[in-house]
Task: inverse folding
């Protein structure tokens, strides 16, 4: 494994442990509580995944000298939001996906009502984690974290992006490149940018340094999405762990449709270079973020 | 109109205004944004209703000397959570209701995907409101508000209660009185109790005074739910504004099934007296909360 792969794996393991300890327990003294089915579904939805958003938050926070324990809680909150969004996006009335992270989606493994409720409770849990004193002793920082996550994940961010995506599928005309870029910035970009922003908030970063990691995250997020579209177009279902060639079939706007395969590859490479360039003022401390950008460009899943 | 009816109406109007100004706008300079459908659905879901939870928060906060503007924001956040829970509970895969507050439910007026997303974004918005400096200048207070709302509405509160309720419907045996009481405390009681708790947090209430309003809310919330079950059993659909005789038909545990109509009426009356008794230490300042309890006992909708 390369250095970045080892680092990603270690982060993913730590996030899994943090989530396992934060998620409410279905059993107390060997007795399952009445709402156990909900709690099982929440745990199921939080399993697996690359933990990319957590990695960005944790590495950014550490780069600014934050305690890793605090950073892992922020990473876990981000993964709760990401997991909830996947559970809801996969629902039959939304993208109607049966496979996610190589396993049945939550509404297939449980049922639709349980999946909706598990998503709801995971969103609540994210804010609960951030508001807790265990995340940071300074309540100003905690409030800023809550506000930042809410801005990125709400109606003008992730959820708004999903709404546009669903409507675009049903429209007669495909979205333009500009509209597709805005959609992506809301649907996936906002939370990726918030991941770095929250790391910077936790690390008391200066305004300049915070902007540096936010700009990095913006370009990285777009490159990541283009790579996602490329994998959907040319990837292999076993490696990707979810259905492929699905977005194009569904009439969704993808960067591959708009730019072609070679054009998309070029754009992703350019954005990756640009993302890394934003980190210049941070010097060697930002190496893990740079390595991540290179790694994401070549990823197969 | 009685004094309490006037007061409830004035609160409902103020909450409607507060929500109208806080909800994101679908149009900017006469142009509808791409996510406008989502924002329309959020507004639709927030219209109407008794604004009971906001009333509890606002009256409690005012009783402890809080500025009404701050209290209305907390009330609006509670109503966002309440509205989101109704939108999701009404979905086809949950309670499958077509009528709410005398109008088509959100998934009927829009569609299922939009309703799920509107509920999601309303939850986010609630936490966004609470984390904002406009709600209170002290970040400790804001964090306490976020934590209190998250505890009441998450897996061990409202969402957990809805999970138990759905599972109880599918079970062979009806729930016991103890299990039904626990379900109600989670599904509706937790948010009602949080409404008073959040008013007390905002008003820097002493631990004793906070306990007084929380105990009031607990008994009041249970009395309110029993009255709801009575209206479902004996009420009139036009007055109630949603389907009646539905919970019993669906095999849901109701207090009327468990206690009989007369037994349920007696229990609600007893709980109302008990709720008011908890307010004794607060004297005349708590008159609106006492009046609300009496009013709720006699309500026809």
Result:
């Amino acid at each position: 494994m390369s250095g970045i792969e080892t680092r990603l794996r270690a982060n993913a393991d730590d996030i899994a442990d943090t989530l396992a300890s934060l998620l409410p327990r279905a059993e107390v003294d060997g007795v399952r509580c009445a709402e156990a089915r909900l709690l099982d579904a929440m745990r199921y939805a939080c399993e697996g995944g690359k933990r990319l958003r957590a990695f960005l938050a944790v590495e950014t926070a550490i780069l600014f000298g934050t305690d890793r324990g605090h950073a892992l809680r922020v990473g876990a909150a981000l993964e709760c939001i990401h997991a909830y969004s996947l559970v809801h996006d996969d629902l039959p009335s939304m993208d109607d996906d049966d496979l996610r992270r190589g396993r049945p989606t939550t509404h297939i493994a449980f049922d639709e009502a349980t999946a909706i409720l598990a998503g709801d409770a995971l969103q609540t849990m994210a804010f609960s984690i951030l508001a807790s004193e265990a995340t940071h002793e300074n309540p100003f920082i905690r409030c800023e974290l809550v506000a930042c996550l809410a801005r990125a994940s709400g109606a003008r961010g992730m959820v708004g992006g999903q709404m546009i995506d669903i409507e675009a599928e049903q429209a007669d005309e495909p979205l333009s490149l500009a509209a597709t870029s805005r959609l992506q910035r809301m649907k996936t970009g906002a939370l990726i940018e918030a991941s770095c922003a929250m790391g910077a908030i936790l690390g008391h970063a200066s305004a300049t340094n915070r902007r540096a990691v936010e700009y990095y995250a913006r370009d990285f997020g777009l490159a990541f999405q283009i790579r996602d579209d490329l994998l959907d177009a040319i990837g292999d279902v076993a490696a990707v762990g979810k259905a492929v060639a699905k977005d194009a079939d569904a009439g969704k706007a993808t960067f591959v449709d708009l730019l072609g395969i070679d054009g998309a590859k070029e754009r992703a490479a350019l954005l990756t270079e640009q993302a890394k360039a934003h980190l210049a003022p941070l010097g060697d401390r930002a190496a893990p973020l740079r390595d991540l950008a290179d790694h994401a460009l070549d990823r197969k899943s």
